[in-house]
Design goal:
Number of strands: 16
Strand order of the largest sheet: 2-1-3-4
Structural class: alpha/beta
Length: 499
């Protein structure tokens, strides 16, 4: 005979322990002098799992193992299965195999398997455990739903920047998340690279990989005592950062300490995001970071030989592409030119070229003559307050609450239903009354003029300032002129020079 024991991970299910089941089954085997050929223990396995898929019992239901046993013994029907379809399908399989099932708490079970009338009775018996299983599932769902709107961490891998912690409150242990200082420092460095140095996502990923910074998933594995492991890779090899993972992390609103469910920010009864931890970034830091993310562009430009003092400042006067700094040498004399830098070569504007020394000299002359007395300004990102997304989320919650009421879910708590609906409607009204202010860049006076600033800047500082202020030196056929770009269309001031 084969002994089958199981304890469930269904919360709320009251079941015998493995030890109790084992003691009862072995006592019965001893009374009947039965030979035990196998002993299975499925720990933390739900009664909803098909017998064939159970880690322990499933191994004894293969064609190779079926020849080793004649009877399957369990303490009660629930230990076999709580699922009505799984249970009945298994009963017919056992009959097909010409074997028997013995249930200690139901002496008539074995005999009932052998007749149509008896199997009908077994079917009726299976409905009780099945309904209990559904009630257990419902209680678990309700428990998850209640916890979903608390400040607890629901489980899984916390976002990068946070670690799970256990707290003992009201006689119970619950999991929360809090900031991890080392990861917060990394996140602020990633922001600096994006905002101040204007690095690409790939550049930030390369920095993280070169510094050996572990991903959130690898950190979670180490906390559990497991080695690092990249998806699809060998154990011990850490997961690599990529352009996609960097962008996904830096745009994740979980960094503001918000709770999320199915990748969406969750809102409380007051209509505001549920805050479960301290934010990594302030509102201003977050706004400028998102602006930097939005401004990243995929470029087809390529570097050429030679250092360009006006990289990002000099542009083709015909097509607007960044000008290329070209260096040639003839008869021992070095010549430098700025020409149309469109890529590939077939897209370049023929004939657009000017001596580099002339362009660089004219930049100084034109710029200081025309704008030297102007005030130096700095672009500052102003976050908007467009609440349309939050209003849409509240409308969805109102509709879900209304459907629940129509289904009778709030029959025993009318006051709770009315309170929730009132709070949601009030929050929607408050949001709808707020003026919509779009996010954007504004110019902030830096307390000096360009003439006053210029003498204290080196060549690279001047280049970056020209770009930040939006000035372009347009290069034509042996001619140049100065233009100023709109505030929202300023190129990167710190792009790498041609080299």
């Amino acid at each position: 005979m084969l002994l089958a024991k199981r304890v469930s991970d269904d919360k709320g299910e009251r079941s015998d322990t493995i030890e109790t089941q084992d003691k009862r089954l072995r006592a019965r085997a001893y009374e009947e002098d039965a030979l035990i050929v196998g002993d299975t223990e499925d720990l933390s396995v739900s009664g909803d799992v098909d017998m064939f898929n159970r880690p322990a019992l499933g191994q004894w239901l293969t064609p190779e193992m079926l020849e080793r046993w004649d009877e399957l013994w369990v303490t009660n029907q629930d230990r076999l299965s709580r699922s009505e379809p799984h249970f009945m399908a298994f009963v017919f399989k056992v009959i097909e195999w010409d074997k028997k099932i013995l249930v200690l708490d139901d002496p008539e079970f074995t005999g009932q398997m052998l007749t149509p009338e008896g199997r009908a009775i077994l079917h009726v018996k299976s409905l009780g455990p099945h309904k209990e299983l559904e009630r257990i599932k419902q209680r678990v769902r309700e428990s998850h739903e209640r916890r979903r709107y608390t400040k607890r961490w629901p489980g899984g891998v916390p976002p990068f920047g946070y670690v799970p912690i256990k707290r003992y409150l009201d006689g119970k242990t619950a999991t929360y998340i809090e900031l991890d200082e080392s990861m917060v420092l990394v996140l602020h460095e990633m922001r600096r690279l994006m905002v101040e140095e204007r690095q690409s996502f790939t550049g930030v990923a390369n920095y993280l990989n070169s510094e050996g910074v572990l991903t959130a998933r690898d950190r979670a594995r180490l906390r559990k005592g497991k080695p690092v492991k990249a998806r699809g890779g060998p154990v011990g090899v850490r997961e690599q950062w990529s352009e996609t993972s960097v962008k996904s992390l830096l745009t994740d609103e979980a960094l503001l300490g918000y709770k999320k469910h199915k990748r969406q920010v969750m809102y409380g009864l007051d209509g505001k995001p549920i805050q479960i931890a301290e934010p990594v970034f302030t509102d201003d830091e977050w706004g400028t970071l998102q602006a930097a993310v939005d401004r990243r562009r995929v470029t087809t430009e390529r570097r050429v030989n030679g250092t360009s003092p006006l990289y990002g400042v000099a542009h083709c006067g015909r097509c607007g592409a960044k000008a290329t700094h070209k260096v040639t040498e003839r008869n021992g004399v070095t010549y430098r030119y700025y020409q149309c830098g469109a890529w590939p070569k077939s897209k370049r504007c023929v004939g657009v070229s000017c001596r580099a020394e002339e362009v660089e000299e004219m930049v100084e002359i034109f710029f200081l003559q025309k704008h030297g007395a102007d005030r130096v300004t700095k672009r500052v990102w102003v976050p908007g307050n467009n609440v349309s997304k939050e209003i849409k989320e509240i409308e969805g919650r109102i509709e879900r609450l209304r459907r629940q009421d129509e289904d009778g879910d709030w029959e025993d708590d009318r006051e709770g239903y009315r309170g929730r609906m009132k709070s949601l409607r009030q929050r929607k009204t408050e949001l709808a009354a707020l003026p919509v202010q779009k996010s954007g860049w504004v110019e902030q006076d830096q307390g000096t003029t360009y003439v006053e600033l210029w003498s204290g800047l080196d060549l690279e500082g001047k280049r970056k300032q020209l770009i930040e202020s939006g000035f372009k030196m347009m290069v034509g056929s042996k001619t140049t002129w100065l233009e100023k770009a709109p505030l929202d269309d300023r190129p990167d001031p710190s792009g790498d020079p041609d080299q």
